[in-house]
Amino acid sequence: MTVQNQATTFSFQAEIKQLLRLMVHSLYSNREIFLRELISNASDANDKLRFEALATPDLLEDRPELEIRVMLDSEAGTLSVTDSGIGMSADDIVAQLGTIAHSGTAQFLDKLTGEARHDAQLIGQFGVGFYSAFVVADEVEVESRRAGFAAGDGVRWVSDGQGEYTVEQIDKPDRGTRVTLKLKDDAREFLDTLMIRQLIHKYSDHIAFPVRLSESGDFTAPAEAVNDGKALWTRPRTEISDEEYIEFYKHTAHDFTAPLIWSHNRVEGKREYTSLLYVPSAAPFDLWNREAPRGVKLYVQRVFISDEATQFLPLFLRFIRGIVDADDLSLNVSRELLQQDPNVAAIKSALTKRVLEMLDKLAQEEPEKYVTFWKEFGTVLKEGLAEDTANREKIAGLMRFNSTRSDGFAQDRSLREYLDSAPSEQSEIYFLIGESPAAARGSPHLEALRDRGAEVLLLSDRIDEWVMQYLREFSGKQFKDVARGSPGPSSGVEADAAGSETKEQRQLLKRVKRVLRDAVDEVRISNRLKESPACLVFNEDELGFQMRELLKASGHEAPTTAPSLELNEAHALVARLAAEKQEPQFEALSRLIFEQALLLEGQQLEDPAAFVRRVNELLTDPDTGAAQDTA
C-alpha cells in the first residue's frame, strides 16, 4: 500500500465497527483497562525489537535503551503512551488497526450479546485490547516508524472510532510508536498523575522495561520509572502476590478475566529454565482451529524470542498460556533450530507433566473450578488420549463423564469414582457413545444394564469414538462399549447358548435380512433389549456412526460396513412382525423397525417421507399397516 503525505481516508472492516460499539458499552464500568492494554502492546513492541536486533543491531539506531513513556498533558486533554520498539510501517498500521486478521471473526462477534460482563470476557478472549482506547477517548492518534526505516517513512493513523480512519505519511525522527488519546470530558480523571501512577503499579509493575511517567510535554526529557521493571517470573514465588500473578496473566494473554490456576517453577541442574503457566477460565473463540497461532511466550536469558512457541507443549494443551525462559538455548534460536534441539523435547515433556499435575491439583482442591475447566477445555484435553501415550493414564484420570448415575447431563463422574462404586466382581468399565447427551441417555443399549443397576459412562462429544479407540483400560480395568459386539457377558447382559434360536426365530431373522439386504450385516435376537423393539450394533473392530461422520467431515471415505440389527422378540411390534404373513406388510414393517433403530442412533434417513408414510398408515390402519408402501 502506498501512503502519501496527504491523509487518505479508509473505512474500518465491518467487524471492527461492531466491535468498537461493543467495547465502549462492555468496558465502560472498568475503563482503566485501556492503560494496561496500551502499555502491554508497547512492551510487546519493545520485546520484538530486542529480538530482531540480535541479528540486526543497526535496528537500535542511536537509541539502545528500550522504554515505555506515559505522558499527561492537562492543557491539551491528552494522554500518550510511547514505546521505543519495533514500530509499524504504513502497511502494518492499516493491517493491524483497520482490520481483525483472525479467522472466525464473524462467529466471534455473533457471540457478543450486549451483556457487559459477558461481552468483556469475550473481548478478552479475542485479544483486541487496543480498541479499549475508544472507551475513554473521543479521538485516537497513532504515530509510528518501523525500526530501520528512514525518518520520512513515518505514518500517522487517526480515528474517532465511528467507522473511518485516516492514514498519512509523516516525518518521524524516532523509531517506535506513540498512541495519543484525546480524552472524553468524563475521562479527564486519567490526567491525574497520582491515579496514573497507581494504575501503572497495579497493572504494569511486572513489565520488563522502565515505564516512565511525564507531565513535561517533552517526550525525550528525563523521567522516573514508575514500575519495578523486573520480569515477574524472575522473582521468588514468595515475593509475588496472587494479584500480581493475575495481572501478569492478563498482560501476557491479553485477557480480561482471571485464570483458574497457575504454576510458577524454576528448574536447575542439567537444564535450567523458568516456567510460569496459566490455565484460562474461558476458551478462546478459535480453540478448535488446530492451525491457529498459539503457544507460550519464549524467552532466552530474559530476551524475548517468540510470542507463539508451540514446541514446548503438545497440541492438546494448546489452551495453556504463559512464558518459558530458558538458559540453555541459543539466543539466535529459530523455529527450525527449536524443533531440532534435544533440550526442547526434554522441557516439553517436563512442562506437559507439570500442566497435568496442575490440573489434577485443581480437580482435587477446587472441584467447582475444575467443572468450569472441563466445560471449557475438556474436549480438547481428550485429544491427549490419542496423542500422548506416556501420559494417557494421567489424562484419563482427569476426564469427567456424564453417566447413568449423574444428575441430568452433568459431566461430574471421574473414572476413579466409577471404579470405587462398581461391584468388585465387575471386570469392565461400561461406556456408550451417543449422537447427543439426550440420545445417549435414552439409548436402548442401556436397558438390560439399567435393570441390573450397572453404571454406564455416556459420551457424546464429536471426538469420543476416536479417542476411546486409544483408551483401552484404566487402573487394570478394560473399557467395554455396550453398543458393540454380540450380546454376552462382556456386554453386561447374559446370552442364551449359541445356536439356541428356534425354527420360527430363524425364519423371522432370515425374512428380515432378505428385506433389508445390505443395509444390515446380520439380523439376530437381542438379549440387551427390554423395552425397545430393536437396536443397531457394530462389531468390536468396526467404525461406528460418529467415527464415520468424523472421517466424512475431514474428506475421507469410511469403510463400507453395515451394523447388525437386533430384535427384541418380547416387544409387541416385533411379535406383530413375526405373525405377519402378507409380504408387502412384512417388508414395510421391517423397514419401519430398522429406521426407528437408525433414528435412535441419531442418524438421518435416506427417505424421511417414506418413513412418515409408513408410520401414518400403521397408526391409521393397524390391521393392514403400510400395505400400500413397500418402498
Number of distinct helices: 20
Mass-distribution shape: elongated
Overall mean pLDDT score? 85
Number of domains: 3
**Oligomeric state of the chains present here:** single chain
- Identify the CATH homologous superfamily of the largest domain: Histidine kinase-like ATPase, C-terminal domain
General description of the model:
The strands form four sheets. The chain has an eight-stranded mixed β-sheet, covered by helices on one side. The chain contains 20 helices and 21 strands. Helices cover 36% and strands 18% of the residues. The chain is of the alpha+beta class and 631 residues long. It folds into three domains: 221 residues, 2-Layer Sandwich (Heat Shock Protein 90), CATH 3.30.565; 132 residues, 2-Layer Sandwich (Ribosomal Protein S5, domain 2), CATH 3.30.230.80; 118 residues, Up-down Bundle (Four Helix Bundle (Hemerythrin (Met), subunit A)), CATH 1.20.120.
Defining traits:
631 residues; alpha+beta; Heat Shock Protein 90; Ribosomal Protein S5, domain 2; Four Helix Bundle (Hemerythrin (Met), subunit A); eight-stranded mixed sheet; five-stranded mixed sheet; disordered C terminus
Quick description:
With 631 residues, this protein is of the alpha+beta class. Mean pLDDT is 85; it is low at 101-106, 120-127, 488-499 and 624-631. 36% of the residues lie in helices and 18% in strands.
